[in-house]
From TrEMBL:
<dbReference type="Pfam" id="PF00990">
    <property type="entry name" value="GGDEF"/>
</dbReference>
<dbReference type="InterPro" id="IPR000160">
    <property type="entry name" value="GGDEF_dom"/>
</dbReference>
<keyword id="KW-0812">Transmembrane</keyword>
<feature type="transmembrane region" description="Helical">
    <location>
        <begin position="189"/>
        <end position="208"/>
    </location>
</feature>
<keyword id="KW-0472">Membrane</keyword>
<feature type="transmembrane region" description="Helical">
    <location>
        <begin position="132"/>
        <end position="152"/>
    </location>
</feature>
<feature type="transmembrane region" description="Helical">
    <location>
        <begin position="107"/>
        <end position="126"/>
    </location>
</feature>
<feature type="transmembrane region" description="Helical">
    <location>
        <begin position="20"/>
        <end position="40"/>
    </location>
</feature>
<feature type="transmembrane region" description="Helical">
    <location>
        <begin position="83"/>
        <end position="100"/>
    </location>
</feature>
<keyword id="KW-1133">Transmembrane helix</keyword>
<feature type="domain" description="GGDEF">
    <location>
        <begin position="256"/>
        <end position="392"/>
    </location>
</feature>
<dbReference type="InterPro" id="IPR029787">
    <property type="entry name" value="Nucleotide_cyclase"/>
</dbReference>
<dbReference type="InterPro" id="IPR050469">
    <property type="entry name" value="Diguanylate_Cyclase"/>
</dbReference>
<feature type="transmembrane region" description="Helical">
    <location>
        <begin position="164"/>
        <end position="183"/>
    </location>
</feature>
<feature type="transmembrane region" description="Helical">
    <location>
        <begin position="52"/>
        <end position="71"/>
    </location>
</feature>
<protein>
    <submittedName>
        <fullName>GGDEF domain-containing protein</fullName>
    </submittedName>
</protein>
<dbReference type="InterPro" id="IPR043128">
    <property type="entry name" value="Rev_trsase/Diguanyl_cyclase"/>
</dbReference>
């Protein structure tokens, strides 16, 4: 990574056309890393499963290493096989600090902590001096402490611009101390290269802020359009889009089972009439939150939608109807066992469920939907708090 440079090249490294190219490439790479981080974190938050979180963090860490390797290859191409450059070292540090600030996960923190040990080991293997090993050890300890502090106090740092700047200087200063320990250079150059690093980070922050603002606006718009304001789950518009896509893909490509479950809250009108509309809203939120959490804890990957009023629909990809029925019957029982406490009243909440798998004979989405709706009606006719799967009332036996 941080292969070192001749001192005479200091000024030329920072003020030439190659530097401009590298700055633009670095900004581009970091913008892509920001987009990747947002996308991965969004998916992890959607699924709320540890596996997704680990996958997101692992992929983010890999993106940091890939970006550093790409920058190395670009420098080699631009400098006829050499990476001996102040600019090269500075952009590598920029990528490391950016990842620490933006991704904020353990894998990236570990990369930052291990990198000075890797660089020093590589330098010694290439024949550099070990004369200043104590300097390396002191600088590494300070750097590791700085990395840990930044990783765990980022929000406090960005709230105080001077503190944030101070830790940038400390981070870059200790890194150059690590470098000096195996490749001594004139310490009078340190201020200049730290200033260069801060300028890089300032440019990167501008690019990242623009990207973050764009993503925040996109995610806000997506949430407003596709999510129900009251319950926080996907709404009817999102269901209409997703359901038609699921029907088209699974029906034409024979991708395995896909099952729809529809349920509504039993005697919902009574909650509004007896306890007021605020109670009705509380019941809707209670049911949506409870079912959504249960689906995620069971790793069903079922998509929950509020269809309208007190009706909800779940799409289960890759699960046959009977398996879905068993999952939903369990959730149904557990929901009934957890009444809602509302303004001193205990509200017993139950749901009725209809379930059907997409069939080869379904010529349209409506065929499938009407069948599920009919099974829901059968559950209500059977006394409510029931589950009907493929025209058969599911029992607990």
């Amino acid at each position: 990574m941080l292969q070192l440079f001749t001192l005479s090249s200091l000024g030329r490294d920072f003020f030439n056309i190659k530097m401009l190219i590298i700055v633009l490439i670095t900004i581009g790479l970091i913008t892509l890393m920001t987009i990747l981080t947002y996308a991965l974190e969004h998916q992890a938050n959607q699924h709320q499963a540890p596996t997704w979180r680990y996958l997101a963090h692992g992929t983010e860490a890999v993106s940091v290493l890939v970006s550093m390797i790409l920058l190395r290859q670009i420098f080699i191409t631009l400098n006829s096989g050499s990476v001996i450059s102040w600019t090269y070292a500075t952009v590598q540090l920029t990528v490391l600090l950016f990842s620490l600030n933006t991704m904020r996960n353990l894998a990236v923190e570990v990369i930052n902590i291990l990198m000075p040990l890797f660089i020093y080991g590589q330098a010694i293997w290439l024949g550099h001096t070990t004369q200043y090993l104590p300097v390396f050890m002191v600088m590494t300890v300070i750097l590791i402490g700085t990395v840990i502090y930044i990783a765990h106090n980022y929000q406090a740092l960005i709230a105080n611009q001077w503190k944030y700047l101070g830790f940038q200087v400390l981070y870059s200063g200790t890194w150059w101390g690590v470098i000096w320990s195996f490749h001594p250079f004139k310490l009078t150059h340190t201020l200049f290269i730290i200033l260069g690093f801060i300028v890089y980070m300032w440019l990167i922050r501008l690019a990242v802020r623009w990207t973050q603002k764009f993503f925040d606006e996109v995610l806000t718009f997506d949430h407003q359009v596709n999510y129900d304001e009251l319950t926080g789950i996907r709404n009817r518009a999102s269901f209409d889009t997703s359901a038609q896509e699921v029907f088209r893909v699974y029906q034409r490509r024979n991708m395995g089972p896909v099952t729809m479950a529809m349920f509504d809250i039993d005697h919902f009108k009574n909650f509004n009439d007896e306890h007021g509309h605020l109670a009705g809203d509380a019941v809707l939120r209670h049911v949506a939150k409870f079912v959504d959490l249960q689906l995620k804890q069971r790793s069903t990957h079922g998509q929950l939608f509020r269809y309208g009023g007190e009706e909800f629909i779940i799409i289960f990809r890759g699960m046959p109807a009977l398996e879905v029925g068993q999952v939903m019957r369990t959730i149904q029982r557990e929901l009934a066992a957890e009444p809602l406490e509302f303004e001193g009243s205990t509200l017993a909440v139950t749901v009725s469920i209809g379930i059907s798998e997409l069939q080869a004979t379904d010529h349209s989405f409506t065929d499938w939907f009407v069948r599920v709706d009919d099974y829901l009606y059968q559950s209500k006719q059977a006394g409510r708090d029931r589950t009907t799967v493929e025209n058969r009332l599911l029992t607990d036996n």
